[in-house]
Amino acid sequence: NAGVTQTPKFQVLKTGQSMTLQCAQDMNHEYMSWYRQDPGMGLRLIHYSVGAGITDQGEVPNGYNVSRSTTEDFPLRLLSAAPSQTSVYFCASSRNRGGNTIYFGEGSWLTVV
Amino acid sequence: AQTVTQSQPEMSVQEAETVTLSCTYDTSESNYYLFWYKQPPSRQMILVIRQEAYKQQNATENRFSVNFQKAAKSFSLKISDSQLGDTAMYFCAPYNNNDMRFGAGTRLTVKP
Hints:
Chain A is mostly beta strands.
């Protein structure tokens, strides 16, 4: 049972480059989301999805793009990386948006130089 | 938007003793959920306990329990019989309508 799988685990980007963080879950969860965690802070919601074909913005969406073409996958795209996007990124999923347990991936460490 | 305050940036406790981590939050919603997550040095987010705001009974999960005061918007976590493996960052997180907000966390160290 893999749960929530994120790739890559570590990535270094140059300013202005684009990249995609991959997230997949094998629990048939409707709800998926992306968070970022900056040093000394809690997680902040970037984007979320309540089902295939449906996405919406969270607290800090600027500079990021998402899509949800299947139930399993929810990639996060950085359009033009900036040093301010250096952070740890977490993907999460839950059965639905009704307050069920939210399961997190192991995190992706991104450094933008 | 919900705001979350964890007023204790760092705490320490002796092994086998009890410790309480505090959390207050601000929300205009009447129906919501509250979570405590643990983050060890590996950075993995691990669910500790979950509370439904419409339930008056405080949630309990083995050595972990909460004191939920809805009117005061307070959601503290009590850890009994602390173990070395409890050393971690602990985050309080209210959740409502697709929006989960996290506090800045409390770093708990359990000393042998």
